[in-house]
Each structure stands twice: as C-alpha cells, then as structure tokens.
Design brief:
Elements (H helix, E strand, L loop, with lengths): L2 E5 L3 H13 L3 E5 L2 H10 L4 E5 L7 H11 L5 E5 L4 H10 L3 E4 L4 H20 L15 H13 L6 E4 L6 H10 L8 E5 L5 H9 E2 L11 E2 L1 H4 L4 E5 L6 H13 L1 E2 L8 E2 L3 E6 L3 H6 L5 H7 L2 E4 L10 H15 L9 H9 L5 H15 L7 H7 L10 H17 L5 H20 L4 H8 L3 H11 L8
Parallel strand pairs: 1-2, 1-3, 3-4, 4-5, 6-13, 6-14, 7-10, 10-13
Antiparallel strand pairs: 8-9, 11-12
Helix pairs in contact: 2-3, 10-12, 13-15, 14-16, 18-19, 18-20, 19-20
C-alpha cells in the first residue's frame, strides 16, 4: 500500500482528501504545517508528498526543499488556490512532479498521484548509469565497420578525412582516433573552421609575432604549434578560406608553419585529422577547394552513416543520452516505452545524433519522471513528419503535391513548388539550429547571405520572436 504525506492547513480539505485517498487504497499521513510534515517524513518515508503552498510557518516551497533534503528523489505534488506564474515556475524548477490549482478535479489528481507512485517505484529500482559508458555507440554493421577502420588507422600517422552529415559525431570519431593513437598522451587541438571568423582563423591556427598587426602586443603560438607531438583536428575544413588552405597544404607537405608577421618557418610534429559535411569533390570542381589539398587530406577516408541508415542503433543511443543527461542533471532516468522507440525508428532525424541527444535532454526535462511514450515523442518533434521509407508512400506524397498544385492553377507551377518546399526545408533547418542562422546555413549547405535572402523572400519569422 502506497503511503502519501498530505500537508495542508485546511482541516476540512485534509479530511475530504483523506477519505478519497483511503477509498482508492492509499495509506495517508496528514499534517497541518510544513514542520510537522517533515517530522513525519523523517520517521517513515512516504512514497509521495502532496503540499499546499500557503502554510503556517514554513511555506510549501520551503517544506518541499526540506523534504528533498531528506529524500532527493521523492515525488512531490504542489497545490495552491493562489496560483502565480512565479510559484509555478519555481516549484517546477525545483523538481515538483506537478503543480495543481485548487479546486482540483478529483480524477485528474488521482491520475497524477498514480503516475507519481510509478515514478517512486522506478526511482527505487533503477540502477545508476555506469561510469565507463563508451563514447562511440552502435551495434549496426555500418558503425562496426567505422570502428574497425578507426582501429586500423588510429595507430598509424596517416592523415584522415572524416565525412558525414551534420550531427553524425565526426568530432567523437576524431577523439577516438587520437585516444587509440601513439600520440594519445600528447595534446589534441580542435579548430572549427566555420565557427572562427576568417580574419581570426589564420592567427588561431598559426599564431603571430609581436607587432604583426594592431593589438598584437606579444608573441602567441597557434593551435597547430601548441599541438606539437599530438593531433590537430580541423573541423568543417570544407569551409576553410582558400588562402589558408595553401598554408595547411604546406603543413602536410613540409611539416612546417609560419606565424603571422614571422620570417622563419617553425617545424612541427602533428597528425592532422579533418572533417566536413560538404561534397569536397564538387567543391574542387567548382574551384572552392584546392585539389592538391584534397588528395593530401584524403589518405584515409572515414564516412559516418546518418542515423536513418542505422535505425537498429537508435534505442541504444536514446537510452545512452537519457542516462547521460539524467546523470549530469542529478535526475532520475525515466526510460522509454517500446511505442516511443518504434516511432523514433521511423523518424528521419535530420540533425542525426546531435538532434537525438537534444530531444532526449528535452524529454528528460519535461518527463516528470515518467517513461517517454509515443505521445511525448510526437510533441518532441513538434510536428515534423515521421519518415516513411517505402516507395509507395513516396509516390503517394508526390502525387498529392502534384495534384494540389495543378488544381490551384498557378502560372508557374514548378517555381511555386520549389518555393513551398524551400520554405519548409529552411524553416526546419532554422528550428533545428534554434534560429542560429550561421548554423542553419551550414546545415543547408548554403552561405549565410543566401540564407538571409531566402528568409526574406519566404517571409519566415521565428515563432514568438523576430
């Protein structure tokens, strides 16, 4: 029989509520103030606590803190007749299972109590996440092939080009290569070629001498020089300016760098790993990427599969991220239902592993300790379409779009179709990048000015914002 601690200064409400809970088979311990409630909880731990906000002496939130100091995973329901947004936010931020306004609906609060008791039971039986959880996860053949290639290439000094869509985990692969290399005890320097402005990228990579430019008041070694003996990871190298590409080519050919404002080359012993989500072959053909650098980088090629091509890994990854985020936030890991996992395996995951991690973090924050189910997942993807892989489904969609546009009698049907889908794709990229336009442009493989032009053309606006 589950035990409920009820703390409310209204004697009539306590009596009525106690009768309802007894009729449902619960054991109820009641108190008229927070201090008494905490004393009762100390003597005998309840399964859940139901607290009013306005209490004599300690208020409900103070009582909540005292109870959580005793039992960090105790589910707590907060009740009040004087709802304010501050109280709702504060109680939720503190980890309340839910916040209920009086007068409450009896079936609704009984349902909440039942769910809270399920959480209490799960808290008692869920083991902690093991400390040695691996970084790279995947039992699919595609990921096992990647791991085998890492195992073969890591002990060598070969330059490695890591390819894959945005969010597939290219930096994790670079870390794994360094970890299993003969340079593992030496520095590992990461340089994101798109995150650093072009005007600063060269000095970040190669360093500078005193007086090399206005503000250069002292000599500074670049990240490549600082990585001497270790590994340099050039992330998003496909976005590197061509002027700097020539200097990276010299590094690979001669193992030398030259600081800005310097006159003497500096010998360095570094291994270079590079990553990109761009089509480098097309970039070479377009004259945007040096062909000689492409061949120097592409000694060993590692391509990471997108999540939609290794759906058998989704359950393992989702459970890992839930555990990881729960551990980092000192929260209970609620787990996932089979129905939620089935839907996750049908979703296209345009943001790949990064998106999966993000959505599991969001699920954890709003789960109230309950397992993530299919309805929760639908809310998580916020209306994004679940992908259907069969050719029949694709034909149905194609036919529906064509019929719709043709019957609307547009003068420029193709242009209208392109604009409509362009607006949809760009909106999805912006949402995925939290409306960071630089990141969205990267996801779309276009320049930031081009993206800004499309946003203006389609009249796109962030929900609730600019």
């Amino acid at each position: 029989m589950a035990k409920i601690l009820l703390v409310d200064d209204d004697a009539q409400l306590r009596k009525s509520f106690q009768n309802i809970l007894h009729a449902e088979g619960y054991d109820v311990v009641e108190a008229h103030c927070g201090e008494t409630g905490v004393e009762l909880a100390e003597k005998d731990r309840p399964d859940i606590a139901v607290l009013d906000v306005r209490l004599p002496g300690m208020n409900g939130l103070e009582t909540f803190k005292a109870l959580r100091a005793l039992y960090s995973d105790l589910p707590v329901l907060i009740m009040t007749a004087y709802g304010t947004t501050d109280t709702a936010i504060e109680s939720t931020k503190m980890g309340a299972f839910d916040y209920v306004m009086k007068p409450f609906d009896v079936p609704e609060i009984l349902s909440l109590i039942e769910k809270a008791i399920q959480v209490a039971s799960a808290n008692a039986s869920t083991p902690p996440m093991p400390a040695n959880t691996p970084i790279l996860l995947g039992k699919s053949r595609a990921m096992q092939d990647v791991c085998k290639r890492i195992g073969r290439a890591a002990p060598t000094d070969a330059t490695i080009l890591i390819r894959g869509e945005s969010g597939t985990g290219k930096e994790l692969v670079a870390q794994a290569i360094h970890k299993h290399s003969l340079r593992s005890k030496s520095p590992f320097q990461v340089i994101n070629c798109v995150a650093i402005p072009d005007t600063l990228l060269e000095s970040e990579l190669f360093g500078y001498e005193k007086g090399a430019f206005t503000g250069a008041s002292h000599r500074k070694a670049g990240k490549i020089e600082l990585a001497n003996g270790g590994t340099v990871f050039l992330d998003e190298i496909g976005d590197m300016p061509t002027s700097i590409q020539a200097k990276i080519l010299r590094l690979l050919q001669e193992r030398q760098v030259e600081r800005l404002g310097g006159s003497q080359p500096i010998s360095v012993d570094v291994r270079v790993l590079a990553a990109t989500n761009k089509d480098l072959e097309q970039a070479v053909a377009n004259g945007e990427f040096r062909e000689d650098l492409y061949y120097r980088l592409n000694v060993v090629n590692l391509t990471l599969p997108p999540i939609r091509e290794r759906t058998e890994d989704i359950a393992m990854l989702a459970e890992h991220f839930l555990s990881m985020h729960a551990s980092a936030s000192a929260m209970h890991n609620p787990g996932l239902t089979e129905e939620a996992l089935a839907m996750m395996q049908k979703y296209s995951w345009p943001g790949n592993v990064r998106e999966l991690s993000n959505k599991m973090h969001k699920a954890l924050i709003f789960s109230r300790g309950l397992p993530l189910d299919k309805d929760d997942f639908v809310k998580l993807v916020e209306g994004a379409a679940v992908s259907h892989q069969s050719a029949g489904d694709e034909d149905d969609v194609r036919a529906w779009v064509t019929r719709t546009l043709l019957t609307e009698h547009h003068d420029k049907t193709f242009e209208t179709l392109a604009d409509r889908f362009g607006a949809i794709v760009i909106t999805e990229a912006l949402e995925l990048a939290s409306w960071n336009k630089t990141r969205a442009a990267k996801l779309l493989g276009m320049s930031r000015p081009t993206l800004l032009g499309r946003i203006e053309k389609y009249g796109l606006k962030e929900h609730g914002g600019s």
